[in-house]
């Protein structure tokens, strides 16, 4: 269960104050697939960062499973990110010098998972995203779609309850993009994983149970779409 | 967990090979210099200690002229004079020592420079001749350590015009035992040739044995006159005697007799010389340590660059659950490794340098043509020095990494992820 109450977030950009979020209230149920849509600068990325415990609100509360992101120290935030949340980024954000397998293992290192188990889990996850044959490849040796699949496998490494995807298809051709969205949707259904996708593409939003429109730091509306 | 950090750190070091090796090189130079200098210094101290142990700590060295008041190492001090080879020869009534019950025996050396010729050699040369009294030829304590006769025999009590040659001198003169050489025109029979030794042996009191010509002191008196003249006396005290006290008594005795002498106990010389060497070693090591500091700054610089370059990577690490301390440890282990690898190579290089130095310096000290004091010398590498150098370089690397690693650890994940 995710609940946001009157969330405010203001940035200082040079001399101007940017009010990224201006009183956001939101509830997302476990296992729900939600798309967050809005033009650039609408505050959707900021919302994403708060949901992923990457950032903290200035006011209000962000409850992840009853734990308030607003009241965590740096360690507590890292703990939330490590255990509850998995991230998929538009830019993939893989470590370029590590193989696909090592990249998927990486989040488990910080949770103190032993090497043998890390290997087994990482191999299983790469199998799940259909990359059995590409485990030893470095990101630079993989196609965009393959890289994003490695990133999805990495996001699943610590078996999180929430999967956050920020424009996951933004850097992919339409075919790879479709594959990624189908993979994410499958994970949402088969693993009952809460899935939140930030996008400006209505096609992507079409996969979701519900689409939340955000503009100028405020939620405009929330539309049940009933899936595909 | 630690193993993971080590694996990741080594991975990162390998990935930036040129920069890593240049950084490591900075540490290598510093560690090698410090290790080599300390090893050489300790080797010198050890060689001094060994030599004095060979002479024996109940031995007093006495030489004419000095009052002993200048101190051992002072400009007029006995030690300096001995080391410079400028010992003067004066007649002294050595028998007077019999008045001191603490004295077991005494041996006397007289050093003169004489014209030496040989049928087997073209030309002639002025060489230093050492006359030895029976006290010395009768195996004065452990004094003959490193003074073995390889060929022929040693002196006997009734010997007259006979000579024992150092190995090198025998070669130069082209003679074997049984041949004769001429000293100041008088025939001397070669009765023995000393074993050639790489280090020269002999130490402070015998100078370079390899280059030595030894005759009975009476034979020198016959050539140069001056009965009772000596350059140096070795006095052995009883085991129970306080060597320092006896030393004072000897100076008092000869001052009363009108022929003042200086004395040195083996312990005094050993201590003073080791003290001087110790200070020298410290100063040199401190200078070398400056280069280590520079190496440490190099590590710090590399780590700052690395943190900056990997800002985005740090952001990713944090997004996937890394805590501040995980980032901190990763960079600390990495910089520690830069230090430790540099330290390991530096120790190897330092060992190599110091053994090279001992070969060169050992040779220079012993085999010089003027016959300097043949101190045998080899660098001393204690396990403590090696382990200490390794530990120190690891810690140096880690300390140099603290500030950069903290900067990395404190990065805000959102900002770090945005970094291009």
How much is the average pLDDT of chain A? 92
The percentage helix of chain A is 25-40%
Give the class-level CATH name of chain A: Alpha Beta
Write the element-wise H/E pattern of chain B from the N-terminal end onward: HHEHEEEHEEHEEHEHEEHEHHHHH
Number of helices of chain A: 7
Q: Could you state the oligomeric state of the chains shown?
A: heterodimer
Mean pLDDT value of chain B: 81
Major sheet details of chain A: 6 strands, mixed
CATH superfamily of chain A, by name, is: P-loop containing nucleotide triphosphate hydrolases
| Second rung of CATH, namely the architecture of chain A | 3-Layer(aba) Sandwich
Q: What is the name of the CATH topology of chain A?
A: Rossmann fold
Count of extended strands of chain B: 12
- Most extensive chain-chain interface: A-B, 28 and 24 residues
Ends apart, CA distance between termini of chain A: 23 Å
The domain count of chain A comes to: 1
| Element pattern of chain A in H and E | EEEHEEHEHHHEHEHEE
Structural class of chain A: alpha/beta
Low-confidence stretches of chain A: none
Low-confidence stretches of chain B: 68-78, 141-146, 364-375
Task: Provide key terms for this protein.
heterodimer, A: 228 residues, alpha/beta, Rossmann fold, six-stranded mixed β-sheet, four-stranded antiparallel β-sheet, 7 helices, 29% strand, globular, B: 420 residues, alpha+beta, six-stranded mixed beta barrel, two-stranded antiparallel sheet, 13 helices, 12 strands, 17% strand
Topology:
The complex is a heterodimer of chains A (228) and B (420).
Chain A: E1 2-13, E2 16-28, E3 33-37, H1 44-51, E4 59-64, E5 67-68, H2 74-83, E6 85-88, H3 100-110, H4 115-128, H5 144-155, E7 162-166, H6 174-190, E8 194-199, H7 202-205, E9 210-215, E10 218-224
Parallel strand pairs in A: 3-8, 3-9, 6-7, 7-8
Antiparallel strand pairs in A: 1-2, 1-4, 4-5, 9-10
Helix pairs in contact in A: 3-4, 3-5, 4-5, 5-6
Chain B: H1 2-15, H2 17-55, E1 59-64, H3 78-84, E2 90-91, E3 103-117, E4 124-132, H4 134-137, E5 149-152, E6 162-165, H5 167-173, E7 180-183, E8 186-194, H6 203-206, E9 213-216, H7 217-224, E10 229-230, E11 232-237, H8 243-256, E12 261-265, H9 266-309, H10 311-319, H11 324-367, H12 383-409, H13 413-418
Parallel strand pairs in B: 4-9, 6-8
Antiparallel strand pairs in B: 1-11, 1-12, 2-10, 3-4, 3-7, 3-11, 5-8, 6-9, 7-8
